[in-house]
Amino acid sequence: MTGSTVAGVRGEAPLPPVAFATESVLAWQRVVSSSFVPLVVDDLSDGRFAGTIRGRVIDGVFFSRLRVSPHEVHRTPALIDASERLFYKIMLLVDGRGELVQDARSATLVPGSVTVYDTARPYDLRFPDHVDAVVIMFPRDLIDPSPDHVRAITAISLGPEERLTRLVTPLLTELSSDFGALEGPVAARVVRTAVDLISALLSTAALAHTAEGDHEHLSLMLRIRQYITDNLGDADLNPDSIARAVYISTRHLHALFHEQGTTVSAWIREQRIDAIRRELADPLHANRSIADIATSWGYPDASHFSRTFRHQVGLSPSAFRRAARSDARRGEPRPAQGEATG
């Protein structure tokens, strides 16, 4: 098996939803490996295996609902080496019980609990009973906590007694059970809301489970990202102005983003283009010109914007908008970062 097929190039045409049922553990291994990332599945059902999966990817985020017989799942170093892209996965257990092991920690999974795991490192999942679970998989750069901060909370059960868990779980359950909310022009807004809630949940958990020094580091990074998000429309937004606003040196700012494998300018560009993609696809902005939308997100130079958009998305702004409108008329999701196969 090769790398995950969930996330592709931005601007690709959407693929059909995943809908699969089988009584073969080998067939189940194939479909979860193609829908998520390469995995090994071991049957614990005494020869009476059965599994079903329904899923849909919008904007690179895979929402899925799985109902499976007792089994184990293993993400091995060899499979990680074969993966083209790496993701975080959130699991919400609806029914059954299980255990997640990653980063020398073990989380007990019970109904209503949420846990996060990273496909960049080995993990094991064990379900001794029939399990009903919601699994959300998304690119690692969609959330605020850095990979180091997420590492501090992998395989930690965030139970239903936690306030944000109680807020997040109904939405994730609904989205992964009824894909009606993931259809048409509103899909991107719904997904963005879900990702923002997941990011808030993981940020809160990371703040609660990191050492004092790391706590301050994460708080600073969250404050920086919030400042950038609030000021994306300012064409003069740059590392120097951001550093001044959060009272650190520009050198320190660059170092913080370097730790996360990116640069300040690249992160600003990605956030701006993502916001512009959403507005180009949104029927509520259908009467606005592309130039007006671009300017409102910090791109007053039309030529520079067009080149940047094409490089990031793979389509010109006008071609992206036409494709989005065409899909909206057919009642399909807009062009996204990729879709699952399976």
Automatic annotation (TrEMBL):
<feature type="compositionally biased region" description="Basic and acidic residues">
    <location>
        <begin position="324"/>
        <end position="333"/>
    </location>
</feature>
<dbReference type="InterPro" id="IPR050204">
    <property type="entry name" value="AraC_XylS_family_regulators"/>
</dbReference>
<protein>
    <submittedName>
        <fullName>AraC-like DNA-binding protein</fullName>
    </submittedName>
</protein>
<keyword id="KW-0804">Transcription</keyword>
<dbReference type="InterPro" id="IPR018062">
    <property type="entry name" value="HTH_AraC-typ_CS"/>
</dbReference>
<dbReference type="InterPro" id="IPR035418">
    <property type="entry name" value="AraC-bd_2"/>
</dbReference>
<keyword id="KW-0805">Transcription regulation</keyword>
<dbReference type="InterPro" id="IPR020449">
    <property type="entry name" value="Tscrpt_reg_AraC-type_HTH"/>
</dbReference>
<dbReference type="Pfam" id="PF12833">
    <property type="entry name" value="HTH_18"/>
</dbReference>
<dbReference type="InterPro" id="IPR018060">
    <property type="entry name" value="HTH_AraC"/>
</dbReference>
<keyword id="KW-0238">DNA-binding</keyword>
<dbReference type="InterPro" id="IPR009057">
    <property type="entry name" value="Homeodomain-like_sf"/>
</dbReference>
<dbReference type="GO" id="GO:0043565">
    <property type="term" value="F:sequence-specific DNA binding"/>
</dbReference>
<feature type="domain" description="HTH araC/xylS-type">
    <location>
        <begin position="222"/>
        <end position="323"/>
    </location>
</feature>
<feature type="region of interest" description="Disordered">
    <location>
        <begin position="320"/>
        <end position="342"/>
    </location>
</feature>
<dbReference type="Pfam" id="PF14525">
    <property type="entry name" value="AraC_binding_2"/>
</dbReference>
<dbReference type="GO" id="GO:0003700">
    <property type="term" value="F:DNA-binding transcription factor activity"/>
</dbReference>
